[in-house]
Design a protein that fits this description.
This protein has about 240 residues and is of the alpha/beta class. Helices cover about 30% and strands about 15% of the residues. It has 8 helices and 8 strands; from the N terminus they run E-H-E-H-H-E-H-E-H-H-H-E-H-E-E-E. The strands form 2 sheets. Strands 3-2-1-4-5 form a 5-stranded parallel β-sheet, with helices on both faces. The longest helix is centred in the first third of the chain and has 16 residues. It is globular, with a radius of gyration of 18 Å. It starts with 8 loop residues before the first strand and ends in a 5-residue tail after the last strand.
Length: about 240
């Protein structure tokens, strides 16, 4: 998701996540944010044409049923796009050259080992694997490998990334390309969170980094600690729990 000047937003879906995407994140964002930001615009991007068609159907259905404001008809849009081949063009006709303020992504982030060993059977049996496990950053072709966007010309391995981390360099590159002020990404666990934080620390754009756990995020000043990142910067940890 992106928010331009506090009132325009764009939500990105990653490759693979798209097959059963329904647009629910984008629609929920509109419900939550439109009362405060009446000029809100939301763009959902997914690689699957079927997912885009379903998201558009759900948008129209929820407006018709009165579950979503009629303003969503003009303020929410869904387009096809591939995170690995993203060039920013899909956002070009929706903005005014100022970019987008916030990017939100929930990409596939489970390593093949974790998928086989730790993922629940119900998830393995019913969720499409490509929605959970990204392609390996070590076996991808040069044109589609995070090596090309790893910080300071580093390879994926030099950047400290592991299997399961494939999408994060691409998402961060997109966020920088659209001049985002905030990027929010879901991760699997604290280990992956630390690797992503280290990746972000190699860019001057992300001056503040935070981990949000699963519980008690709304208690200001509580359940909070500060972690020293590998680059010497600080990372704030909010909430409690393992996630």
């Amino acid at each position: 998701m992106s928010i331009r000047r506090g009132y325009a937003s764009s939500a990105f879906s990653a490759r693979g996540e798209s097959h059963y995407s329904t647009g629910c994140i984008s629609l929920l964002l509109h419900t939550l944010l439109s009362p405060t930001y009446p000029s809100l615009h939301i763009l959902g991007i997914d690689i699957s044409s079927k997912a885009i068609a379903l998201a558009r159907h759900n948008l129209a259905h929820n407006i018709q049923k009165g579950l979503l404001s009629r303003s969503a008809r003009e303020q929410v849009r869904f387009d096809e796009g591939d995170v690995f081949g993203f060039d920013g063009a899909v956002l070009g006709d929706d903005g005014d050259g100022e970019g987008w303020d916030v990017v939100v992504a929930n990409p596939p982030y489970i390593s093949p080992r974790s998928f086989a060993k730790d993922t629940e059977r119900s998830v393995r049996n019913w969720e499409p694997k490509e929605a959970l496990v990204p392609p390996s950053p070590f076996s991808a072709s040069p044109s589609s490998s995070p090596t090309s966007v790893a910080p300071a010309g580093k390879t994926t391995e030099q950047a400290g990334l592991e299997e399961g981390d494939t999408f994060y360099p691409f998402i961060l590159a997109i966020a920088e390309k659209v001049n985002a002020k905030i990027v929010a990404m879901e991760v699997a666990d604290m280990g992956q969170a630390k690797r992503v934080a280290a990746l972000m620390g190699q860019s001057r754009r992300w001056a503040r980094r935070e981990f949000w756990r699963d519980k008690n995020l709304g208690l200001k000043g509580q359940w909070q600690e500060v972690l020293k990142a590998e680059d010497g910067g600080e990372v704030v940890i909010r909430g409690e729990g393992n996630g």
